[in-house]
């Protein structure tokens, strides 16, 4: 690729066509993210509706993994739709993806639950999640490339940063619709009210499809098509030729993997932590997350625009470093300010589980078939659900499990006795709303959004600029969706299982911190600066 001056478009204003391109691409992508995040936001409700045939802990892990299933297939969607986008065009491809996404989401709202049709319910649900994941795999690359290829020189960071806001906007929209539906349906929300946000997606699908039908093909694709230079084998050119494949690996391991875990750690895992670990009221936790998202969203455009001047790499690497260094202190502070009674109880008395290791399983049960029936497993599951930190001590083979909380020692597992001991040790069953320091929780959530914006705001422009036009859709989509779909999408379920294994409510944070550290090192060594590259090569 050749470099060109970034000042060429310095005085260029946003004309009507450019505004329409950004608006149409962004609105469609907002809708797709809205669809995708409904499931994540309602994981606890969905676990009761579709996975009620297994125990509570396994059901929640199963629900998280069904959420992650949509992420698992995103790289395959990137391959399928990336190839289509490089051969048939950007516009046609993201018209197809939006119809698949919207149809699958609407179907979730109609799907009977486990009590009605048994095991078919979770099977169909996961199939719909897979369709959603495939569609998202083709959506993001198409929208980012379409906007970037319409942007004037020196404005690509600013233009594509609007696409970056769509993920948070979609999440915000899903949270707003869920909160409104909860208010309108009250206690019935968990029974049938949760279906309303899914069913509403059919209206959004119609609007988004109509808008996208009015778009023209991107000028870059029109040019390579007219010249006959479009790729005949984009998968081979992208991944089987080292000259391009090395940049695919650098993009993944030196930028997107860390971005993925930072994004999902700061938004989804933070919300899971507030509601599941700190036991804050779900409406309060969702409202605080929504406010933090609203504060953070303009920062995507700020940092995207800034990257046109100072470069993409500096901002992305700075955000990764700050996030990796402060993730543990931020989550510890969330405990202190979100549930001070829990923080006090943890400081005052922790638990010890003394058991024969042969009787203690790793409670990661993705298909819901394992039965955790030993005293050790039941004790650790109960302690984890109560957010009681514990350590594990090895007992002789065949010894009876002992649970020690403070000065109290319980021999064997008795649910009522353990529950009473946990309560006597000062562990609350939920956060006291009067004691939640709302401004501090909001400030901490907003700080996470600042880090995310620094990393995510410039990354679309960087990925588009990193690859040649003829194979751009395929090349950028795969690393993006492996980084976000696999590294990021599996974060909640992996972190939850790590916490259940270790007994430390913060232990799950090691997963994003290690990946962020590795991404920072690789990115600093190998990731090039791309802001002055010519997109038409």
Helical residue percent? over 70%
CATH architecture of the largest domain: Up-down Bundle
H/E series, N to C?
Answer: HHHHHHHHHHHHHHHHEHEEEHHHHHH
Decide which structural class fits the backbone.
mainly alpha
Major sheet details: 4 strands, mixed
Can you identify the CATH superfamily of the largest domain?
MFS general substrate transporter like domains
Radius of gyration: 24 Å
In CATH, what is the class of the largest domain?
Answer: Mainly Alpha
Which residue ranges are poorly predicted, with pLDDT under 50 across at least 5 consecutive positions?
A: 1-12, 365-369
* Secondary structure: number of strands: 4
Output the CATH topology of the largest domain: Growth Hormone, Chain: A
Strand fraction: under 5%
Quick check: average pLDDT?
85
Q: Give the quaternary arrangement of the chains.
A: single chain
Shape: globular
Distance between the termini: 6 Å
Counted by DSSP, the helix tally is 23
Q: Strand sequence of the main sheet, in spatial order?
A: 2-1-3-4
Total count of domains: 2
Describe the structure.
The protein is mainly alpha-helical and 537 residues long. It has 23 helices and 4 strands. It has helices spanning 16-41, 43-50, 56-72, 74-88, 90-110, 114-117, 120-148, 156-185, 195-199, 201-213, 219-227, 234-239, 242-277, 282-310, 312-338, 340-348, 375-385, 415-424, 438-456, 459-466, 472-488, 491-502, 510-526; strands at residues 351-355, 390-394, 402-405, 408-411. It has a 4-stranded mixed beta sheet, covered by helices on one side. α17 links the parallel β1 and β2 (390-394).
